[in-house]
Each structure stands twice: as structure tokens, then as C-alpha cells.
Write a structure and sequence with these properties.
Chains A, B: It comes from Lederbergia wuyishanensis. Chains A, B: Belongs to the UPF0342 family. Chains A, B: InterPro entries: Com_YlbF, YheA/YmcA-like_dom_sf. Two copies of one chain form a homodimer. In chain A, 87% of the residues lie in helices and 0% in strands. Chain A has 117 residues and is an all-alpha fold. Chain A has a single domain, classed as YheA-like fold (Up-down Bundle). In chain A, α3 runs antiparallel to α4. Chains A and B meet through α1, α2, α5 and α6 of A and α1, α2, α5 and α6 of B. Bound molecules: calcium ion (CA) (2 copies). One calcium ion binds next to α1 of chain A. The site of one calcium ion (CA) has 2 residues of chain A, from α1.
């Protein structure tokens, strides 16, 4: 039965790889990768995001300077069409992944929901 | 294409629901639910786990008393066969879910791996 389960996962993986969302995301990544300015903006934005997430996870306070720095980079990034298209593509992919997860995890959600009533 | 993607997810959900791992997990949950002693041990163990996880997420220190309390409950729980079987079933299910996720997320892992080279 376990092998069968993995077969279905491989079929979903294949469908994901061929999906419009994923193909579009790859194209938008390539567009940013091949543009030095877009690439450095995107990297800077990602680094600030990761730094703030890391601090949050460690329960550390985020300073006013850091909030302002993040906002400044976010504003700059929004002026670059390639980067904003990539961020939209990532957002769309992430929404699809969340919906896929919700579908797949339904049996477990039901079981835990029943238990925690 | 998006509809198609969800079709594959629904097929995987269906397979998960019919899998040996999931059916066994449901049975082990029912066994604990129907045994007052096992149920209260399991609930106590889960509560302590959740409390410690919550503190970790908030970056708070876990006291020596809390570690000892958690260990004491873990020891007690290990003496109950129904609870240990349920915990093993959960562990097995969780391992399968992780492997399914690894398979499904491969396209995205490859894309991000390529980008972050
Ligand atoms: Ca198949
Ligand atoms: Ca189908």
C-alpha cells in the first residue's frame, strides 16, 4: 500500500512540474537571473526578509531601523517589473501549494479535529 | 492545468485515506479514545509537549522543572501499551507524510537549489 501512495505522489509531482504556475515561475526566475539589476534587488529583498524571519523565530525584537530598511527595499523592489512579476509568480505558486496541502492533509485534519473536539 | 493539479491531489488524498498507515493510525487513536487511563495519559503528554513547543517558538527559556515534568510524563506514557502504539503509529504516519512532501516539492526544491547555487 505504501508503494501505491508514493505512486500518487510522483504523479502529482509530475503534474506540478508541468503546471502553468510552475512553468511561469521558472520563466520569471530566469528573467530575474538574467538581469543584473533585478537580481541584486531581489537578493537584497530576500536577505532582509530572511534576517527578519530569523529574528522572529529566535524571539528577538525587530528594531525601528530594520523595519525602515525592509520598507525601503520593498519600495525599491516594487519599481522593478521583473522582480514584481517573480514575486507574484511565487505568491501564486505558494497559494496552489497550500491548496494542494489542504486537500492531501484532509484525512489527518479530520482525524485530529475529531480527537480534539 | 490548475484543475488537473487538484485532481492529482484528490487522488493522493484518497490513497492516503485508504493507506495501511492511516487506517492503523485511526485504529490506534480509537483504542486510546476508548480507554480512560490511556486517554488521560496521552492528553497530559500532548499538553506538556505543546506547552514546551509554544515556549520555544516564543523564544522563552524552558525551566529545569518543566524538563523534569516532561520526562516524568514521557516515562509514565511509555508504560502504557495503547499510548505507545498510538505514538508509533503517529511517527510512522509523519514519516510517510514527510516522504510524500519531499516527492511533491522536488520541482520547487530544484528551482530554489538552482537559484541559490
Ligand atoms: Ca498511478
Ligand atoms: Ca485523475
Amino acid at each position: 500500500m505504501a508503494t501505491n501512495l508514493y505512486d500518487y505522489a510522483y504523479e502529482l509531482e509530475h503534474a506540478l512540474r508541468k503546471s502553468n504556475e510552475f512553468i511561469y515561475l521558472k520563466q520569471m526566475y530566469a528573467a530575474v537571473e538574467n538581469d543584473q539589476i533585478a537580481k541584486s534587488m531581489f537578493d537584497a529583498f530576500r536577505n532582509v526578509q530572511m534576517k527578519l524571519q530569523q529574528k522572529q523565530m529566535e524571539g528577538l525584537d525587530i528594531t525601528e531601523t530594520e523595519v525602515m530598511e525592509a520598507q525601503e527595499i520593498a519600495n525599491r523592489v516594487q519599481s522593478n517589473e521583473k522582480v514584481t512579476r517573480l514575486m507574484e509568480a511565487e505568491q501564486r505558486m505558494s497559494t496552489s501549494i497550500n491548496e494542494l496541502n489542504k486537500i492531501i492533509m484532509k484525512p489527518l485534519d479530520e482525524l485530529y479535529g475529531f480527537i480534539n473536539r
